[in-house]
């Protein structure tokens, strides 16, 4: 339990740090906050033992895409003046610190949030086949949400505020590029879950 509290405290400190002190990648404070919310909702579901805990499941599902969404923030690293043409690297300290403040939270939040899905699926007692199917469906839904977030600039909360608009975007045109993006990010998420599964399994065998 202490580790969980330490995790939440670290995330909160990071969010405040990015919001107050940083100019480069300051948007990461908000993005990490949005990825933190599903972790909190899932933790509440896992910790509570009454029927009211099921209220947190739709909230978790609504905000979960913000977790793998962080992977798209890695493209902002291209704005740093670290790598130069010809394969040369510059030791620009400020850029390397910016590199750290973007990469570390992405790795921590993505792997923590996606690893938590295993605990959720176990808590609701899904069979092996149901778990596999749920991972596939969740990866597809998340990938669609990531696409809308990146290219249509639709945020999770807008599904509640402007549901008709979001549904129109969901059911609207599906060009080849959109289908490929959803497929790519679905494979990426399934690959991460596969890695987490084998790491957890290896740890249990030891």
From TrEMBL:
Domain of life, per lineage: Bacteria
Q: Which residues are the signal sequence here? A: none
List the transmembrane segments.
5-21, 27-46, 53-71, 96-120, 132-152, 179-199
Q: Which UniProt keywords apply?
A: Membrane, Transmembrane, Transmembrane helix
Asked whether the UniProt record includes Membrane among its keywords, one would answer: yes
Q: Which Pfam families match?
A: DUF1361 (PF07099)
Q: What is this protein called?
A: DUF1361 domain-containing protein
What organism does this protein naturally occur in? Enterococcus dongliensis
